[in-house]
Amino acid sequence: MTDQNTSGRIEVVHGSMFAGKTEHMISRLRQEARRGRRVRAFKHSMDDRYDPDHLVTHRQDRFDAIRVPHAEDLPALSVGYEVIAVDEGHFFKKPLIPVAIQLRDQGKIIIIAGITYDIWGRPFDPLPQLCEIADEIVVKQAPCRVCGNPAPYNLRLTPTDVLHMVGGLDDYEPRCKEHFTPFSTTPPETA
Fold first, then answer.
1. 110 burial class (0-12, 13-18, 19+ CB within 10 angstroms)?
2. Is residue 47 in some structural domain?
3. Are 44 and 68 a contacting pair, CB within 8 Å?
4. Does residue 61 have a pLDDT over 70?
5. How many angstroms separate the CA atoms of 189 and 158, rounded?
6. Could you tell me if 138 and 165 are in contact, meaning their C-beta atoms sit under 8 angstroms apart?
7. How many structural domains are present in the chain?
8. Could you tell me which residues are beta bridge partners of residue 137?
9. Lowest mean pLDDT among 3-7, 106-110, 132-136
């Protein structure tokens, strides 16, 4: 049941890996729970890092989460909740956009965290489109591992099949524009 005093809104938290996006999201969820709102968190089913049933920060802070394979699954699983969090929103691709709008129009607060740029340095859909409709945008950037400047990019360090790019500390490094090199394979077309 949606709180009548809550108007729907979309909040987007984006940036590089290891910058605190999930940490920010968990903090927001706890803040809203303290206000008495019912909160629910989701992560993509392909995100098998750390713990399948929790959002987990790189510092190992945890928050209960439900794994789902498709953005279209979110509305049915959000019934009865006022605040919805979606971690690693880029994995849900462009179908997340109409779902975010639907949830916002139902009066829910939807908080989406995701990576700004893919491993080729291109804007990582659907984050640019979500930022266009967001009521609030928070940018988080880790320091570049080479020079320490803010790092909007992620350098892929290990091979990948491009279809499964989930990774952690051994797979990626945050990099500034000067020290970023696009991944060596040809990028797939975006849909």
1. buried
2. yes
3. yes
4. yes
5. 21
6. no
7. 1
8. 12
9. 3-7
Confirm whether 150 is domain-assigned. no
pLDDT grade for 62, boundaries at 50, 70 and 90: confident
Residue 157 included in any domain:
no
Amino acid at 128: P
Domain enclosing residue 29, as ranges: 9-141
Radius of gyration for the chain, computed over Cα atoms and rounded to the nearest angstrom = 16
Q: Is residue 67 part of a domain?
A: yes
For residue range 31-42, list pLDDT tens digits in order: 999 999 999 999
Catalytic site residues? 88
Q: What share of the chain is helix, strand, coil (3-state, %, to 5)?
A: 20, 25, 50
CATH number of the structural domain spanning residue 82:
3.40.50.300
The mean per-residue pLDDT over the stretch 14-34 comes to 94
Nearest CA to 154 among 132, 172, 139, 131? 172
Q: What is the pLDDT of residue 126?
A: 96
